[in-house]
Amino acid sequence: MRLFLKDGTVIEGESFGAASNAAGEVVFNTGMVGYVESLTDPSYAGQILVLTYPLVGNYGVPSKETFESQKIQIAGLVVSEYSENYSHAEAKQSLGLWLKRSGIPAMTGVDTRALTKRLREHGVLLGELVQSGKGKGFVDPNKDNLVAKVSPRKKRIYGSGRTKILAVDCGMKENIVRSLLSRGAKVVRVPWDYDFSKERYDGLLLSNGPGDPTMCAKTIENIRRAMKKGKPILGVCLGNQLLALAAGAKTYKLKYGHRAQNQPCIDTRTKRCYITSQNHGFAVDADSLPTGWEEWFVNANDGSNEGIRHKTKPWRSVQFHPEATPGPTDTAWIFDEFIASLKK
């Protein structure tokens, strides 16, 4: 099996997933654990994921109850060393078998750290995983509206709490829903382009999701209309970018993105640094924030924006994942603050 990169690099390895080809944007994640959560995260739609941790597969795959969506979302997987033998009390199958059943190709026997270094130096590259031959060519997933592909088509309601949160699902991870339900909220989950102007709710949540946020013109317009009501808003990951665009700011594509469970982010109010879980390739241009808005969090590594908030309105968002899965739960208090703002 081979991985072809658009810069001409060809990497050989052994197949351990489905006997098929896949094209997409090649990105990397530096987390030590959490491959099940990462593979089912809709934010990875259209991407070939490279895992830098040297051993993958050793704890298998658990039941669907722990997934972040109903299926594997990545286009393909590349690892250094795959372990078919697994050991975990909740494991139901091997990673390789899961990939085969899901039709997702995967390659092992690759120096993933050297590959990651290339991606860091040159930026993310388009690539293609090919079983044999030369494949069909490169595909840029960011030219498509990936959110439309992963967002649900129908409204769903969870819980029976007195506090009602309308969650715009742009590819929402399941643990966001779990986090809200565990805090006593009722969650109304709607598609990315759903017109919720006539819906009654206490707070609006803008979820994570894949691709270029500017593709979500309908969502951005719906957010602008919602802002006229003055209700509390919380954005997560892509939701941070969508809120910024609705406010009149700009976004841009990062050189190689942030995909890890150890990204340090500084709260501009308290100067306290939090270790966060992240998965995004675009960011908010903090310099373009209009009057009345300010940076909430800043990445301690590269200085990029990690959150925004309005100075007087109850509107805020973060670029990282306070719900974790995988990663630390140090910023779970953001959900607590959001729920508290709904009761004022």
From TrEMBL:
One Pfam family, short name: GATase
Domain Carbamoyl-phosphate synthase small subunit N-terminal: 1-130
Top-level taxonomic group: Bacteria
Catalyzed chemical reaction(s): hydrogencarbonate + L-glutamine + 2 ATP + H2O = carbamoyl phosphate + L-glutamate + 2 ADP + phosphate + 2 H(+); L-glutamine + H2O = L-glutamate + NH4(+)
InterPro entries: Anth_synth/Amidotransfase, CarbamoylP_synth_ssu, CarbamoylP_synth_ssu_N, CarbP_synth_ssu_N_sf, Class_I_gatase-like, CPSase_GATase1, GATASE
Metabolic or biological pathway: Pyrimidine metabolism; UMP biosynthesis via de novo pathway; (S)-dihydroorotate from bicarbonate: step 1/3; Amino-acid biosynthesis; L-arginine biosynthesis; carbamoyl phosphate from bicarbonate: step 1/1
PROSITE patterns reported in the protein's UniProt record: GATASE_TYPE_1
MF GO annotations: ATP binding; carbamoyl-phosphate synthase (glutamine-hydrolyzing) activity; glutaminase activity
CPSase: region residues: 1-163
The protein's enzyme class: ligase
NCBIfam families found in the cross-reference section: CPSaseIIsmall (TIGR01368), PRK12838.1 (NF009475)
Record family assignment: Belongs to the CarA family.
Known function: Small subunit of the glutamine-dependent carbamoyl phosphate synthetase (CPSase). CPSase catalyzes the formation of carbamoyl phosphate from the ammonia moiety of glutamine, carbonate, and phosphate donated by ATP, constituting the first step of 2 biosynthetic pathways, one leading to arginine and/or urea and the other to pyrimidine nucleotides. The small subunit (glutamine amidotransferase) binds and cleaves glutamine to supply the large subunit with the substrate ammonia.
UniProt-recorded name of the protein: Carbamoyl phosphate synthase small chain
Organism: Candidatus Kaiserbacteria bacterium RIFCSPHIGHO2_02_FULL_54_11b
